[in-house]
Amino acid sequence: MNTLKSLFVFCFSCFISAQELQGTVTINSELVSRTNKQVFKTLENALTNFINNNRWTEKEFLPQERIQFVMFINVSSYDNNQFGASLQVQSSRPVFASTFQTPVFKFKDENFNFSYTEYQPLFFNANSFESNLVSLVSFYVYVILGMNADTFSMNDGSSYFKTAQKIVGLSQQSGYRGWNQSDGRKSRYRLMDEMLSNSYQQFRKVQYQYHRNGLDTMYDNVAEAKESIASTIISIRQLDRSRPNALLTQLFFDTKADEIEQIFTAGPSIESQKDLVIALNKAAPFFATKWANIQ
User: Distance between CA 179 and CA 187 in Å, rounded?
Assistant: First the structure.
């Protein structure tokens, strides 16, 4: 009887808990001249399973709490198991009391290069460099986890960002670009350096306030929620003034520009709308055509 009860508890626990992420990896190999493209499909499935089925944290996630993501790998070259590629990654989370998924992290990595042999097993070890492919994918998993956590609780993503930063450190001697300080403005090194720097804490404050004090209160009072979001966006000017051309400022607007336009071109107008447009044009002038639609 006790054995049966234990089995029931075990099965029930498996049913109610789930891994942290749920999404898809898509590989585009159109630029590669190769008759047999099975290796790309094998890799696509392997990466999707690696991310979705691996246990990345100590926390329990209910099935409906799993973080939604998409990864699009665009392969530009393939020779002797060496892949030259770029990555576009995006994650989202639900807005409270709605069916709407808000984008949380959107990033393009131009140096997503790696070696892979078909059916090669993928294992993540937090304390060693296994392969550049595993390090790249695991790095973005922890960035997604950290960004998601920061939207629910102030600075709650720090432990995930520190793991991502550790992956950066372990990968720096690999010879692959993106892991070192000298690898450009949009490197993985710079992304984590800014994310964990006290000089850029305004970004993480914005992440929390925009989502928890803004989007998640839309169900209660749309006008007040829009005022809160506008105030939060205006505050990002503090970061832009003290750290012009910050990667995190660009990251925020790359992720949120479409959503900001949608929020403030629909529903009730707010008193701070003019101030918001001024701040948007100063902090993110590259999206000026979108801001022009906000009256």
Answer: 7
Number of CB atoms found within 10 A of residue 21's CB = 20
What pLDDT does residue 15 have?
Answer: 41
Element (DSSP H or E) covering residue 79: strand 67-79
Q: Where along the chain do its domains lie? A: 15-196, 202-291
The answer to whether 103 touches 259, Cβ cutoff 8 Å, is yes
Structure tokens at 170: 């372990």
Q: What does the alpha-carbon distance between residue 3 and residue 15 come to, in Å, rounded to a whole number?
A: 18
Model confidence, pTM: 0.92
What are the C-alpha distances in Å from 207 to residues 14, 174, 183, 232, 253? 32, 32, 26, 9, 11
Q: Which two tokens stand for residue 287?
A: 């999206």
Q: Is 81 left (phi over 0), alpha (psi -120 to 50) or beta?
A: left
Q: Which of 199, 195, 261 is nearest to 230 (CA)?
A: 261
How is residue 218 written in tokens?
């839309």
Q: Within its chain, how far is the Cα of 264 from the centroid? A: 24
- Tokens standing for residue 229: 């979001």
3-state SS, residue 92: strand
Q: What is the pLDDT of residues 36-88, one digit of tens each?
A: 899 999 999 999 999 999 999 999 888 888 999 999 999 999 999 999 999 99
Q: Are strands 21-28 and 114-115 parallel, antiparallel or unpaired?
A: unpaired
Q: Give the pair of three-digit tokens for residue 50.
A: 């690696």
